[in-house]
Specification:
The structure is a single chain. Helices cover about 45% and strands about 15% of the residues. By secondary structure, the protein is of the alpha/beta class. About 0% of the residues have low confidence. It starts with a strand and ends in an 8-residue tail after the last helix. Helix 1 packs across helix 6. The chain has 2 domains: about 160 residues, NAD(P)-binding Rossmann-like Domain (Rossmann fold); about 120 residues, UDP-galactose 4-epimerase, domain 1, CATH 3.90.25. Helix 2 links the parallel strand 4 and strand 5. A 7-stranded parallel beta sheet has the order 3-2-1-4-5-6-9, with helices on both faces.
Length: about 325
């Protein structure tokens, strides 16, 4: 890859891991954030402070850029109707499309869009993934339309659940509950869930950009680690120096109760399978995982302790 790398959402969970990977590899980068400064130890390159809920002119910032990795978006939010939903779509769909259009106009050779497994679920008809899955799928289509037939290649990555330093959302909530000794009625769950060390995902993104021929297409991303929900909870607890209390309640009972309460989609996040086969992407890139799942658990727990048992701001 020639030129520097533009990273949107550079102050986020994945963005910070990618910034660190660029620093380690000596890759020049330019980061966009919505007002938070990154925790990366070397923030020498300038940061673009841009609110993606509003129109933004990327043109002056695309000079000298050889690739764009678009990470920015609204996630881990219970979106309802009205303004909250419109804001999600403005940031997750329209801002992504606008950036892609300007990247094409600027003849940026490579565009990597980090989507979500939820986009694939929505595509297959699972509307339980909610507005977030819908927005990610619509963003994929909008970016694809704008890059079609242009000099800008498009790689869409749909990562599985990621672990590591600075994790937010549902995993941060699980750590809080485990730390408090809250029992989980999940001892009877038998499922398969792919997880990924966020540092492996950052390395995978750089592997996409190092590939001599630009990568095009939609790819599921994982590093091969697979756990059941009970085992995932045990590993998190062990990293925190705790023991998790798992009640041996059959998954069928939990599903029945969740259906009565109208919480089926939420329950399936813990009860259902979420296995990702990333071999096609590994083969395309001749890539193998660099960092272990154990390292991700430990880094996640250590950062949690350093913050006093709180998720990072933002």
């Amino acid at each position: 890859m020639e030129g520097r790398l533009l990273i949107t959402g550079a102050s986020g969970f994945v963005g910070q891991a990618l910034v660190d990977a660029c620093q380690a590899a000596g890759i020049a980068w330019l980061g966009q954030a919505s007002g938070l400064t990154p925790r990366s130890p070397a923030a020498a390159p300038p940061f673009i402070m841009a609110n993606l809920a509003e129109d933004f002119d990327w043109t002056p910032h695309l000079k000298g850029v050889g690739a764009v990795v678009h990470l920015a978006g609204v996630a881990h939010t219970n979106i309802g109707q009205g303004e909250a939903r419109e804001r999600m779509r403005r940031i997750n769909v329209q801002a992504a499309a606008d950036l892609a259009e300007q990247a094409v106009a600027g003849k940026i050779p490579r565009f990597v869009f980090v989507s979500s497994q939820h986009a694939g679920s929505w595509e297959s008809g699972d509307q339980g993934v909610g507005f977030y899955g819908e927005a990610k799928k619509d963003a994929e289509e909008a970016i694809r339309k704008r890059t079609a037939g242009s000099l800008t290649s498009l790689a869409i990555l749909r990562p599985c659940l990621m672990l590591g330093k600075g994790v937010r959302g549902n995993l941060a909530s699980l750590m809080r509950w485990i730390d408090l000794g809250v029992p989980f009625p999940l001892g009877g769950v038998e499922n398969r869930r792919s997880i990924m060390n966020v540092r492996n995902f950052a390395d995978l993104i750089l592997a996409c950009l190092r590939r001599p021929e630009p990568l095009d297409g939609v790819y599921a991303a994982s590093d091969g680690a697979v756990y059941s929900t009970p085992e995932l909870l045990r590993r998190i607890a062990a990293a925190l120096g705790r023991k998790v209390r798992l009640l041996p309640i059959p998954a069928s009972y939990i599903r029945g109760l969740a259906k009565l309460l109208g919480q089926t989609s939420r329950a399936e996040k813990l009860l259902g399978d979420s296995y990702v086969d990333s071999k096609p992407l590994w083969d395309e890139l001749a890539w193998k995982p660099v960092f272990s799942a154990e390292a991700a658990f430990q880094e996640m727990a250590s950062a949690w302790r350093e913050r006093g048992g709180k998720a990072p701001a933002g």
